[in-house]
Amino acid sequence: MKKTAIILGASGLTGFHILKSLIQDERYDTIKLFSRSKIEGITSLKVKQYIGNLLELEQFKADFIADEVYCSIGTTKAKTPDKSTYKAIDYGIPVSAAKLAKANKIDTFLVVSAMGADKNSRVFYNRTKGEMEQDVQEQKVPNTYIFRPSLIGGDRNENRTLENIGLKLFKIIQPLFIGPLKKYKIVNASAIAKVMIFIANTNTYTEVVITSDTINAISKNN
Questions:
Q1: pLDDT of 52-94, one tens digit each?
Q2: Looking at residue 2, what DSSP letter applies?
Q3: Range of the domain at 99
Q4: CA dihedral 145, 137, 212, 4 (to 10 degrees)
Q5: Which helix (H) or strand (E) holds 208?
Q6: Secondary structure element (H or E) that encloses residue 153, with its range
């Protein structure tokens, strides 16, 4: 029997790669997108779009039914300078999604976090991601996987000047990242998407937290 996948954040860089990959994947016949506005240009008959306020995700409960949830939702400080709004997005949406997954007996939940996530961090961004990870795991969805990429590479539709500068600098110094430093290497959004789908379809994978070095390694070998 073919599968149904839910994507949160399909308009973003990683989410769009997940969407493209699932459209091409014959194991899936239905892909549900939950977003605040319609994503244009999608012609696949697999895709169903549900439009509404993701900060009130509970409204979608009746339609939030699938085999897997891919959550790559997130914002930036530049886009969302207000900390309460930022937390409502980066913490609130993934945790609400995990709660719905539990309530609707969805067995697989995959979420993109960030390197440095730490619920005890003094840095707001890292602390928010850490708290999100903790509360997602507390829902005890049987197959929960947290992806902690370093800088994410790929072609974006939006201009992020500082991030682009950071990516260029990282590319120059990446050869120095060996041993424990491998987790700081840039990871392409396409690789994250590929590995998320691979792990969702691998019953034997036991690690819960997957960092950039592991993402890059799995992507190259599969």
A1: 999 999 999 999 999 999 999 988 888 888 999 999 999 999 9
A2: -
A3: 3-221
A4: 30
A5: none
A6: strand 152-153
